[in-house]
Amino acid sequence: MLPSPQRLGLCWKRTFPLLEHHSWLCHPHSQTTTRPSRVLPPRLHKRWKNGSAEKSDLDASHSLFVAERAPDAKWQNWKEGRDNGVGDWNGNGKDDLGELSEGKGKLASTSSHLFKLILPLGQLSHPGNHHKKPTENSDIPVPPPTVFLLHPSQPLSHVSRLILASLMPATPVISFRSLSQQGQAFQWSDSTDVGDFVRDAARAAEFRIVMTYTQDGQPKSTQGQSMVVDELDKDKTGIQETEIRVEVPTFAHRTRFLRRKLALIEARIKKMEVTKKECDDEAHRGAKRLAVGGFGMLVVYWGAVARLTFWDYGWDIMEPITYLSGLTTVILGYLWFLYQGREVSYSSVLSRSISNRRDALYQARGIDVELWSELLTERRNLRKEIGRIAEDYDEEKNNKDK
């Protein structure tokens, strides 16, 4: 006869009296027995109960802070800005959304050479539905702006499709227009790359995104008529246009990530340059000491030959000795040529000595030559990139005029 569930529960309590308060291990009125689980320590059980253990394992915010922080950024300020949704999380308290003007869009740069297009599309819709923006005292929240990440090589037609997808079910005709220096408006082709378009719009500091609507929300067929005629005859055709003025980033704002990265690289180069210069100077001094020592050995050799020839042994004995010593020098020089692959000269021996001493000092003081070369190359590339962007904004011309 099987014991009743009440007896099983009573036996469990008698067997494990210390676990009686853990109701999640075994309930006395349950119809089935439960396999006893491992009891967690109080401290670990408390962490697991609060969910902090799992949350800390999945939180990679500090890694993101290390990867994207500014040189003077603080972890606490970065974390507070992220939790509150303000600032760019780099400690300076500024971001692209906070600087967005009323009813205007903005084009900003990113750290990955992409463009960030911010448009207030949540406040726009088809003109026929009489959409109105909520007042300041209204309980209706204002729709947040829409952010698009654009690659410079993407065409404007791709941007148009992204905007259309955000405006569904409305299907306006999207066009991009900018002003010339004389104030004349012109429209860009959809096949134009985003990078070329931004390069030209940077001189005017802004451009316009025009959304052309018809009465039924569909683009009107322009058979036999041009779009210019339809725009001039809006009252008769029912075509309405909504435009968003988009601010183009300034030179300082567009190159802020490049200049920040350049400052970090230059700081690392400057830090390594001090130690590297000390090693180079010490290597040159050691090579000069070696050259002076070689000259001293030649003087000693000349003095020894003169003494032994004219005072001690005479020319008959010293002649074969000097001949053999000279021939030995030639043989050693030829072996140097075979081993080093270069002729024996003062400059080659000196440069080889400097190179060997410098490499030894670099290794002793922990200087990575490959890292040094990579930093120099990256600094040169960043300066080229900043110079290329400066040409788009006519910064070099303005600096020369000043």
Write out key terms for the chains shown.
15 helices; 402 residues; MCU_C; calcium; seven-stranded mixed beta sheet
Question: Please, could you describe this protein's structure?
Answer:
By secondary structure, the chain is an alpha+beta fold. Helix content is 53%, strand content 10%. The protein has a seven-stranded mixed sheet, with helices on one face. The longest helix has 57 residues, at 256-312.
Secondary-structure element pattern, one letter each: HHHHHEEEHEEHEHHEHHHHHH
Low-pLDDT segments: 5-58, 84-93, 217-233
Question: What is the straight-line distance between the termini?
Answer: 104 Å
Helix content: 40-55%
Summarize the structure.
This protein has helices spanning 5-15, 42-50, 52-58, 61-68, 75-84, 156-167, 194-201, 227-232, 234-237, 251-254, 256-312, 315-340, 346-365, 369-392, 395-401; strands spanning 105-109, 115-119, 146-150, 173-179, 185-187, 206-213, 240-247. The chain is of the alpha+beta class and 402 residues long.
